[in-house]
Amino acid sequence: MRKRDRSSSSTPVHRPATPVVTPQPVHDSHEFTVQQQILFDVLRRTSLAEQKDKEIFEWLTDAAVWLKDCGNNKNFSPGSLAELRFLILGVLQTLPWWRVFDWNHVQGVRVTGRNGRQHSIRALTRWHERIQIAFERVCLLLMEQSQHAVRGVMEVAMKPFKMRSPVVDGALRLIPGDTIM
Predict the structure, then answer these.
(1) CB contact at 8 A, 56 and 47
(2) Torsion of the alpha carbons at 73, 79, 82 and 84, rounded to the nearest 10
(3) pTM
(4) The predicted structure's pLDDT at residue 65
(5) Which of 38, 40, 49, 141 has CA 20 to 30 A from 168's CA?
(6) Where is this region: Disordered (predicted)?
(7) pLDDT attached to residue 85
């Protein structure tokens, strides 16, 4: 084995690294604005109409987190918060209500119409509790943050009561495979 020659250069000494405190970058607020704009653009293009139960539940859970976090974030201006609430309400308008509610015939109750026909009474019942609870959480956060959002929340919440039942003649509707019963 051959011995290695020594060089006359000095060996570099590893000094302990001193913690370097860097000031906050100037582009931080710019990055925040870009992220906020991306969120708003995604919300503008989001529709719950074609999503599965799990995806709807996850979106509602995320919306509750966005409302909480953005409400506590000092970088969000009041106008941005109002726009966020407006966009979330817009997405809630696309919620397929048959995933949350279902019309059921009340057993043994019939009503006679003016023309003498017998009609059964239908009742609106809750169908999917996890989505219902997540929906209520988002609605409560919206109303808690702004009095102006109350009207929009009430319009969204009362939507199934304004709509006609998708099946009037009592025919059975196929239930999607991803629906939890």
Answers:
(1) no
(2) -60
(3) 0.60
(4) 93
(5) 49
(6) 1-26
(7) 92
119 three-state secondary structure: strand
Is 75's pLDDT higher than 60? yes
Contact 36, 80 (CB under 8 A): yes
* Number of residues in the chain: 181
- Using the predicted structure, report yes or no on whether residue 71 has a pLDDT greater than 70: yes
* Those residues with Cβ within 8 angstroms of residue 36's Cβ, 6 or more apart along the chain or in another chain: 76, 80
Q: What is the C-alpha separation between 56 and 53, in angstroms, rounded?
A: 5
pLDDT in tens, 121-156: 555 455 477 888 888 899 999 999 888 888 888 888
